[in-house]
Specification:
By secondary structure, the chain is mostly helical. The protein has one domain. It is built from three helices and no strands. It starts with a helix and ends with a helix.
């Protein structure tokens, strides 16, 4: 693969992280921040893939698998936390209705 293709892909990848970082910082809910973190993890994986393609080495593949597993576990933890939070809020609202 020509070097200029990897350079252009790296520039596009770098520029596309700007809105993702904005969503992580300014996201109004925890789900917006979680989606931003997942997207940033995807961009890190893509950067590692570009590095692997540029250097013709395979040692970054193990790191890519580790980051993918960590991201999956993190996403499941956030989803579980948010579902518990929504359940407790719904329970609080239903308790208020019963008392009226």
């Amino acid at each position: 693969m020509p070097d200029w293709v990897i350079l252009v892909a790296g520039i596009i990848l770098s520029l596309s992280t700007i809105p993702v970082i904005y969503r992580m910082v300014a996201g109004p809910t925890i789900l917006d921040r979680s989606v931003g973190a997942d997207m940033l993890m995807v961009f890190v994986l893509l950067a590692l893939a570009l590095f692997t393609a540029a250097t013709h080495s395979t040692f970054a593949i193990v790191g890519m698998f580790a980051i993918t597993a960590l991201g999956f576990i993190g996403t499941m933890a956030v989803a579980r936390f948010v579902s518990r939070e929504e359940t407790s809020q719904a329970k609080d609202k239903s308790d208020g209705v019963k008392q009226l």
